[in-house]
Specification:
This protein is α+β, with helices and mostly antiparallel strands and 435 residues long. It contains 11 helices and 14 strands. Helix content is 26%, strand content 13%. The protein is globular and about 65 Å long. The two termini are 37 Å apart.
């Protein structure tokens, strides 16, 4: 078996089968879920107004939500092995059936969720494409390295950039690569990249992204490029006339009733690096129940109450393989499971992970939204995010003796945690029962 960038299984048998046993096949679970009564008109109010409707009694959870809490406890015990601090939240049929934390984590802390922020960049682009369709009529097919969309890119550092489309940026197939720590991927095969040229320290945040080197032609291969995601946010910024964070606040956070939130890579404050612009490549910082709300928004195909916040068609594109990426199971900033590489999860599952083991999941066929909060433990950084209502971590168990589980993590600087995110998903899916 080979494992590519971000842990995608590209050859072999896929992920390890469930250790605790699934109650049935994926098709059985999906059929059982479709037969259940669902209330698709329920949307949780903000936490300050009561928040999620919840169930705590195991028998009621089994009867109403079709969940075996004992299996979720097993998933939580596993989650505790994947990071120093964190938690697990599960919502099924609109009921919050599980919310549990460990270490210094709790509902109110808002850690830097790293690359989970890319999902918000993508969804924001989907809103922009609908809102500004007259200004960007070709949608994802738009070639963005033009005077209209990225005027600061000229003169182009590589003529091949003229063919990069917005869809390429969002599917990680722009042909750009800002490093060579991980391989490129061409139709499932790893490609070793040459070392990049030294980074010019004089380049600003946007300029560094605009001048990333090309390793292949647009669409010619996959490389997990945070700078490519940031370029998508620059296109958005120019079209909507505001920063990505302000756009998310207007289009998602306020309508959905988020509590305190921000970006972990924006100062001021000792935990934030002062950046000129919202980092489209990641760093969003949400309260746990709001991260779960985002997963629930995806389940409801972009609808929140009576408002269609995100075009349903765009959410559909995020949830399935993309024509812009024929190389890996990754769509418009989401990992997708249509190929079944996450063995114990339905094939319509899609999710976005972040370094340290964070992940937001949506499983439409099971009407299931999940948030895995897994903070690697840099308490002086990700918790101090520089926005006014940032809460302080509670003085719970510091877990000073915690070490990453050897079978689901690797340590090379920050803990990646992607294998752990897939394993946790399988275990949560195994809690779904056929009544």
């Amino acid at each position: 078996m080979e494992i590519s960038r971000r842990g995608f299984f590209i050859r072999g048998a896929g992920v390890v089968p469930l250790l605790y046993g699934a109650p049935g096949s994926r098709s059985t679970l999906e059929a059982a879920s479709r037969s259940r009564s669902k209330d698709h008109n329920y949307f949780p109010p903000p936490d300050i107004e009561g928040g999620w409707r919840s169930l705590t009694d195991p028998d009621r959870i089994r009867k109403v939500a079709g969940i075996d809490v004992r299996r979720l406890d097993q998933a939580f015990e596993y989650t505790e092995t994947t990071s120093k601090y964190g938690g697990l939240l599960v919502a099924r049929h609109g009921w919050l059936v599980y919310e549990k934390y460990f270490g210094r984590a709790n509902r109110e802390v808002t850690p830097n969720m790293a690359s989970c922020g890319k999902a918000f960049t993508s969804i924001s682009c989907g809103i922009m494409l609908n809102e500004k369709r007259d200004e960007i009529p070709e949608g994802l097919e738009t070639k963005v390295f033009t005077e209209k969309y990225l005027p600061e890119a000229f003169p182009l550092s590589d003529p091949r950039k003229a063919d990069i489309k917005l869809g390429h940026l969002l599917a990680m197939t722009s042909g750009m690569a800002e490093g060579n720590m991980f391989p490129g991927i061409v139709r499932g095969e790893n490609v070793k990249l040459d070392p990049p040229p030294p980074r010019d320290p004089s380049l600003g945040q946007d300029e560094a992204a605009l001048r990333v080197r090309m390793w292949t032609t647009p669409g010619g291969g996959y490389f997990y490029s945070s700078q490519g995601s940031h370029l998508a946010s620059i296109v958005l910024r120019h079209r909507v006339g505001m920063e990505l964070q302000a756009y998310i606040d207007e289009k998602l956070a306020k309508p959905m009733g988020f509590g305190g939130w921000g970006y972990g890579m924006i100062g001021p404050g000792p935990g934030g690096t002062k950046l000129a612009h919202t980092p489209g490549g990641g760093g969003i910082a949400l309260r746990a129940t709001d991260a779960l709300r985002f997963g629930y928004l995806l389940l409801r195909k972009g609808r929140w109450g009576k408002q269609q916040l995100v075009p349903a068609e765009y959410v559909d594109l995020c949830a399935k393989p993309s024509p812009y990426n024929v190389h890996t199971p990754f769509s418009l900033q989401f990992e997708v499971n249509e190929d079944g590489h996450v063995f114990g999860a339905p094939r319509d599952t899609f999710f976005k992970s972040g370094a340290g083991g964070f992940c937001i999941y949506a499983v439409p066929s099971l009407d299931l939204a999940v948030y895995k909060m897994s903070i690697a433990g840099m308490m002086g950084g990700p918790y101090d995010l520089g926005f006014s209502n940032q809460p302080k971590p509670t003085p719970q168990d510091p877990r000073d003796d915690w070490k990453p589980h050897p079978s689901n993590q690797f340590v090379d600087g920050p803990i990646d945690g992607d294998a752990g995110t897939r394993r946790a998903l399988e275990m949560v899916v195994a809690s779904v029962i056929d009544i």
